[in-house]
């Protein structure tokens, strides 16, 4: 088994594991921090942003690059459409991925880049809340950027990174950054997702049984258990042992794994989420008492639900219950409505409210009583009529590079009575505010991240007792802000990895399960050779198809399983005597030239050869068939007639030596 690390963002992971000839992608997170290198996209032209001076390198200046870079308070920004850093696409071709397993909606934002316009033909699996809330995130992202289009795209600066100041000079794979996908790409990628429920078992092409189990982090978030008859692999990403609104983490399903892959630990390990929630409520109340308004940049789902509840109660206790709250997002209406119909994915306390009956989240009550109002944008109908100050505004995007939050910064930034409070830990808040400086409004950093911290992760690992622990290398080193925080498991075998690395995992196939046809099983006569030990000989035809081994009777017809590519074929098996007489043991390597000649002799034409990635692939275009040669395996992937697969198998065997 191998693991490929396609992303260096620990909070937005993307990995691929290969096992039994399958390529399984675990999450497809999108690194959004790259947008901090770009100027914000205001809804209306900003006098300040449009009059920033050009940045000119001290040497090797290219006049064609004039206007691409702007300078603000000692920082240099790209004046162009924001771009995102994708998972690495050169380690493995995305078209060869068989399955994508999504753990939560925050880790699926790169899905359109992977499944659309890449030749991807695999399957994607996620829970229903992950799919629906992921849709809200993707649609909001597209809307925010498309509603404020840029006239041109800057590209020349990427060739001059060595001349630029930090942090642009350290930009990772800048030439691979991509602008946002289209809404059509979003719809296309989400149409490939198959919904699964917690603890539902899924057979992945006969190689694994995949099961999503609750991770306790957010609505519908999952850890994945991949099991065979003899192995167990657990993928733990974005988990929480705290008591919040999602269903609690299922630890029992993760115990005693052969391999435990853990990622997605907290981005704010030195702070307590409850403490920061209290600070947020206090800062909002102080802002309102000073006759100012509070801006809280947020995502359209997740922690924002808890903020509505806690902040409203706190303001009521402080005698500020008449202060209006506004939730502004292109998907605000859908997000608020959907959150109240997810009883089975909620904690028991929230579920009990549904059965009373009552709303699981109090924001439904606030909406009915106009304490909370929602709009698509600041320019939406009715907003200017309802808007009054002081107030509290929840809107996106947390990066402050696009979305309605940019408008409020422009409107409130010069008033020191106003405040902006950051709760999302994805973006360093000082870098977020950089293009708006100098700024008079107060800024508070109250990161609320409920995912596992280092102490909780160490405790969980000890309880799960895996044979091998696989974690990013950064988790084994002291955290930059807290030297005593890191993963330390002296009694465990730990394997670490970095972005761009391919590592071997100590999981080798020793045994596999073989199914015996019922007709053959009925004829077995066991003989006891010792106390409690019985033996029997068995003669049959071993059929290997879609990684499932089955022994069929020699004299009976072999029919392909219903639903497989060979459904409907009747292939008469040879007699027992013929089988025993013609047994051969093949060995050696395939001579490609000899194989090509034999294929031509057998009537196969229009064959394309590819040697990418160190492996040989033959594409039989007319037969819609692919032959893949790997280190110790050869796969015949047949989309046409099943007889073609058998014919190709015989041709391959003729190219090997035998005795």
From TrEMBL:
Ranges of residues in domain Beta-Casp: 304-433
One GO process term, biological-process aspect: snRNA 3'-end processing
Places the protein is found: Cytoplasm; Nucleus
SMART domains, alphabetized: Beta-Casp
GO molecular function terms attached to this record: inositol hexakisphosphate binding
Gene Ontology terms: cellular component: cytosol; INTAC complex; integrator complex
Gene3D superfamilies documented for this protein: 3.40.50.10890, Ribonuclease Z/Hydroxyacylglutathione hydrolase-like
Keywords, sorted A to Z: Cytoplasm, Nucleus
Entries under InterPro entries matching the protein: Beta_Casp, Integrator_9su, IntS9-like_C, Metallo-B-lactamas, RibonucZ/Hydroxyglut_hydro
Source species, domain of life: Eukaryota
Similarity-based family: Belongs to the metallo-beta-lactamase superfamily. RNA-metabolizing metallo-beta-lactamase-like family. INTS9 subfamily.
Name assigned to this protein: Integrator complex subunit 9
């Amino acid at each position: 088994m191998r693991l490929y690390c396609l992303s260096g963002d620990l909070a937005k992971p993307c990995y691929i594991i290969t096992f039994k000839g399958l390529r399984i992608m675990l999450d497809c997170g999108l690194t959004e921090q790259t947008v901090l290198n770009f100027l914000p996209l205001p809804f209306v032209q900003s006098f300040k942003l449009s009059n920033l001076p050009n940045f000119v390198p001290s040497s090797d200046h290219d006049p064609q690059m004039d206007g691409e870079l702007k300078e603000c308070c000692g920082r240099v920004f790209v004046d162009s459409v924001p771009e995102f850093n994708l998972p690495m696409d050169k380690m493995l071709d995305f078209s060869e991925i068989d399955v994508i397993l999504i753990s939560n909606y925050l880790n699926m934002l790169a899905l359109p880049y992977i499944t659309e316009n890449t030749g991807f033909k695999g399957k994607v699996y996620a829970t229903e809340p992950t799919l629906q809330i992921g849709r809200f995130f993707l649609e909001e992202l597209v809307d925010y950027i498309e509603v404020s289009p840029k006239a041109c795209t800057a590209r020349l600066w990427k060739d001059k990174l060595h001349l630029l100041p930090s942090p642009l000079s350290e930009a990772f794979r800048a030439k691979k950054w991509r602008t946002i996908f289209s809404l059509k790409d979003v719809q296309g990628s989400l149409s490939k997702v198959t919904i699964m429920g917690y603890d539902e078992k899924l057979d992945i092409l006969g190689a694994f049984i995949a099961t999503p189990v609750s991770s306790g982090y957010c609505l519908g978030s999952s850890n994945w258990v991949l099991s065979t008859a003899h192995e167990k692999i657990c993928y733990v990403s974005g988990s929480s042992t705290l008591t919040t609104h999602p269903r609690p983490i299922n630890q029992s399903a993760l115990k005693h794994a052969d391999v435990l892959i853990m990622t997605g630990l907290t981005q704010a390990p030195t702070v307590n989420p409850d403490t920061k929630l209290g600070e947020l409520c206090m800062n909002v109340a102080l802002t309102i008492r000073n006759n100012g308004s509070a801006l809280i940049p947020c995502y359209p789902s997740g922690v924002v639900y808890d903020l509505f509840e806690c902040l409203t109660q706190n303001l009521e206790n402080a005698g500020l219950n008449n202060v209006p709250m506004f939730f502004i997002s292109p998907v605000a209406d859908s997000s608020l409505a959907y959150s109240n119909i997810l009883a089975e994915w909620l904690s028991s306390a929230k579920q009990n409210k549904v059965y009373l009956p009552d709303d699981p989240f109090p924001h439904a009550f606030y909406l009915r009583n106009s304490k909370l109002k929602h709009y698509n944008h600041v320019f939406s109908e009715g907003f200017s009529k309802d808007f009054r100050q002081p107030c509290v505004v929840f809107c996106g995007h947390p990066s402050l590079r696009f979305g309605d939050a940019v408008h409020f910064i422009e409107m409130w930034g010069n008033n020191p009575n106003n405040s902006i409070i950051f709760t999302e830990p994805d973006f360093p808040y000082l870098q977020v505010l950089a293009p708006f400086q100098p700024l008079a409004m107060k800024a508070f950093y109250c990161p609320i991240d409920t995912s596992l911290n280092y102490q909780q992760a160490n405790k969980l690992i000890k309880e799960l007792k895996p044979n091998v622990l696989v974690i990013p290398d950064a988790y084994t080193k002291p955290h930059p802000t807290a030297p005593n925080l890191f993963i330390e498991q002296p009694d465990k075998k730990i394997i670490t990895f970095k972005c761009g690395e391919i590592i071997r995992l100590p999981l080798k196939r020793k045994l596999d399960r073989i199914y015996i046809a019922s007709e053959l099983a009925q004829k077995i006569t066991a003989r006891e050779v010792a106390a409690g030990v019985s033996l029997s000989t068995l003669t049959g035809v071993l059929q290997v198809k879609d990684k499932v081994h089955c022994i069929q009777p020699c004299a009976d017809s072999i029919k392909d399983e219903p639903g497989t590519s060979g459904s409907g074929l009747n292939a008469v098996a040879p007699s027992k005597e013929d089988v025993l007489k013609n047994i051969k043991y093949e060995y050696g390597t395939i001579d490609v030239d000899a194989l090509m000649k034999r294929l031509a002799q057998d009537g196969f034409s229009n064959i394309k050869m590819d040697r990418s990635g160190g492996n040989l692939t033959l594409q039989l275009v007319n037969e819609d068939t692919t032959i893949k040669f790997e280190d110790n395996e050869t796969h015949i992937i047949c989309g046409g007639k099943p007889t073609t697969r058998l014919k190709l198998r015989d041709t391959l065997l003729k190219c090997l030596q035998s005795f």
